[in-house]
Fold this sequence. Notes:
This protein is of the alpha/beta class. It contains 13 helices and ten strands.
Amino acid sequence: MSQHASSPGLGRFARILSLVAVAAVVLAAILLMLPQDDRKYVTASFPRTVSLYEGSDVRILGVSVGTVESVTPSGTDVTVRLSYDAQYKVPEDAEAVIVTPSIVGDRFVQLTPVYKGGPTLADGAELSTESTSTPLELDEIYQSIDDLTVALGPEGANKEGALTRLMDTTARNFAGQGEQFNQSIKDLGKLTGTLDNNKEELFGTAEQMQRFVTALAENDQTVRDFNESLAAAADVLEGERDDLAASLRNLGIAMEAVSGFVRENREVLGDNIKGLNRVSKVLVKQRAALDEVLKVAPLALNNLFLTYNPSTGTLDTRSNQGETGGQFEANPEAFLCSLVAPNDPSGEACGLIGDALGGQPRAAALEDGAARDVPVENVDRSLGGLVEVD
């Protein structure tokens, strides 16, 4: 009974599996027939495509992102159709380069440079030979070596033996210099090591030089004006070169004479300098007295000038006897105080005279005596402008 009951269920399950398989096949066919939008295509023209075939890799930074769809000769160029995954962005100014991973083996196409922003390469873009590059082939290297050999051979540069003579001369000049060459190479190694250890300072110097050059460029007109002024000064010196030469010659003669004078009178000059040193020290020690002399000297010189009589050539003075007698009669205390006041700064003597005579105060005597002095405003304290005064 159980076997008959289960057979209808198995038949339904088999029919469902067959329907699912048919649906999957139909879906796969539909996907194959629909256009694929997940790939982009590029057509590139190369001058040659040695060892590049349909199905070769298309890479970005060495990572495979697509394949070569076709390789078709087109006149003197080869047209290569490339496809790559649309999720990878390629810059609008990209180039296609054929890269040789080894001497023998398939090659691949590399899209460069790496995308860093901006417009991208459009689908179906075409790259001309100016935007493509191919590796140097081994036969081209051999051809270049052959061309160089022919150019340096007997039919070329060595046609008249010039190259042979050059090699012979070089061999003779370098013969026995191996030790020096070795030392030179070692020194060069030390130099490069020193530069490497001081690269920050070297680059810093280069940066400062760049700033200096930039400053000169920004002040180009000022530099030009300076050069013009310098040129004008040079022209003036060129026009006065005879006078300048004569001046320098006379200066040389004078310096020679001074040098001879100093050499001949070295001891005397030494003594004078020592004496001047002593005088300077004395002036420093006596600067207070010197200051007092400079303050009093103008008044003394002015009084001396007033005593000079140019008509007779004599120093005239007067004793003031008459005035003295009148003052004594009028005020004996004031007269006596005026006599002792210059030698009595404290005023004690004048006070004693006043106490003894009971007369005028000391101040009146001093004012009466000072009235006969020369007015202060008429005294030239600058010594004729030689010193500064307040």
